[in-house]
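Q: Could you fold this chain for me?
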Amino acid sequence: MSSTLAKIAEIEAEMARTQKNKATAHHLGLLKARLAKLRRELITPKGGGGGGPGEGFDVAKTGDARIGFVGFPSVGKSTLLSNLAGVYSEVAAYEFTTLTTVPGVIRYKGAKIQLLDLPGIIEGAKDGKGRGRQVIAVARTCNLILIVLDVLKPLGHKKIIENELEGFGIRLNSKPPNIGFKKKDKGGINLTATCPQSELDAETVKSILAEYKIHNADVTLRSDATADDLIDVVEGNRVYIPCIYVLNKIDQISIEELDIIYKVPHCVPISAHHRWNFDDLLEKIWDYLKLVRIYTKPKGQLPDYTSPVVLPYSRTTVEDFCMKIHKNLIKEFKYTLVWGLSVKHNPQKVGKDHTLEDEDVIQIVKK
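A: Sure. Below is the predicted structure, expressed as structure tokens.
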């Protein structure tokens, strides 16, 4: 393990002292690929004796979405969590240990949202130290990450946390790079770019892929991509998670400073202790989660507006809705009546491929 860390340090040092220009771009690309490979080794260790049981940091996924809280000690994560969960929650007393997180569930607009405190993600977690690795595994399953920062010393912390998260393949507030990548059995490396590239050329692409022992592949660059983008696609284990920066302790700054903070993108200033601006934070969380609520209507009754079925925005067809309720439902499915924004007529008869919108009302007719 230590040798891997040493190698990483060595490569990072070399990257730091290499000037960035056209001539060195190729070399830097290679180094980046090597770095990504070493990082991956740290996160997914070579099959060894296998850790014994009792190491669990797995949190059962409950609710419709889960949010991870990341931050340095003493920025008020716990206060924020217990106040959020205390004000809006159904969970009352839970054992709170920093090793296994079993934090609150809040109900917001009918959706159950699980809040997780991700402890100790900071101190060199991506180097596989401590419990870092399990924490990361949980972080990667979150639908949204809240980075809690102290408003008095935010920027240094923000960089460190972002670096750690990037280090284990979590990309914040970004879209997957628009690169097509397909391995083949023969035919060499085939590079097509649909727009001018400022960083990658055939040579660099070849050498990055060679580092992964890939010598035959089709690569399509559909946007101006960087070496990092290409590596992300080849590694294929990146997750793209939206992220909100929560600036805590705003009770300690002036109104003028607050105005400036409000202009920062992806940022919400709050005071966990005084419970200021929580509604703003919840609104923003809701925006970023992009959940879709579907109300059910039994035949001949009014729709049930109290407990919607909540779907993630990527999967909102009628079929997904059925699967969420019970997997046998789709077998008995005849057609569906839908009221709401996704249809032209109210109600409208639709099949199982119809895409639903937020707050639609649905009635399923079985065979």
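A (continued): Residues 22-43 form the longest helix (22 residues).
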